[in-house]
Design a protein that fits this description.
This protein is an alpha/beta fold. Helix content is 40%, strand content 18%. The protein folds into 2 domains: 200 residues, Rossmann fold, CATH 3.40.50; 119 residues, UDP-galactose 4-epimerase, domain 1 (Alpha-Beta Complex), CATH 3.90.25. The chain is built from 10 helices and 13 strands. It is globular and about 55 Å long.
Length: 328
Amino acid sequence: MTWLITGGAGYIGAHVVRAMTEAGEEAVVYDDLSTGVADRVPDGVPLVQGSTLDGDLLRRTLAGHGVTGVVHLAAKKQVGESVDRPLHYYRENVEGLRVLLEAVTAAGVPSFVFSSSAAVYGTPDTDLVTEETPCVPMSPYGETKLAGEWLVRAAGRATGLSTASLRYFNVAGARSPELADTGVTNLVPMVFEKLTENAAPRVFGDDYDTPDGTCVRDYIHVLDLAEAHVAAARVLRSSPGRDLTLNIGRGEGVSVREMIDQINAATGHDLPPTVAPRRPGDPACVVASADRAAAELGWKAKYDVQDMITSAWAGWVRQHPEAARDGA
């Protein structure tokens, strides 16, 4: 099959592209390069620069490359920014998806994997989140991902499109230093940035209803996440008409304070965090049950938090050589 991977020049997308091609699939990357990096696209993989709002370009790309499946990763993803710019997030994440699905179904593409998020759950009243946990998102970002799932499911039921919505938990780590996360919007690179400046990392709120007062999250290595896409793609190809919604996580919670302590230890630093006010839209605790993904996809996460930190740090040091002077 030939898979169109939207957002394939991004941090997660670049890992998905490699996992797919190594599994013997053909890939075409579609990315507007607003946050993606063209150099992340492997040699031999076509790159089409464009927006998912551009229906004409999407239709030409699907036809021109003989696309038979889509992995849709392209989206705006910053929770705080979504609170400030909800209309922008709905336009990019929901309208962009609608335009893409319109092109996909018109072209008769049979399989569609959607990048969703644990943000759809909001603040779940449970220690372990299953796919049946009520979805009450706390931010416009989370709302757009839930609306995206609805769109994907509705399109599948109406047209026979096989679909899988993968609810990512907190992604970290890297396959290799050059593919590391270059943004500073997720916890791990945010802490790295502070350590590089010899400044204390920040904790956004320490009065949550959790054991140490800081938010608890389920972290997953980007390599495990990429393999989950390969597994989902195989299931959709072999089982037409599927409608899957799956958590992609490790099932283990780590608090922000614990994560910072582990990052300090792994990088040779000793900078206790300072406490800043809570950020809008941040739930206290979100930890996945990944049992359904294991049953449906035959997939299970292999890497632990230390793997995530050490691989991400190698990428950070490559981008910021000064970070290694005082650290490990």
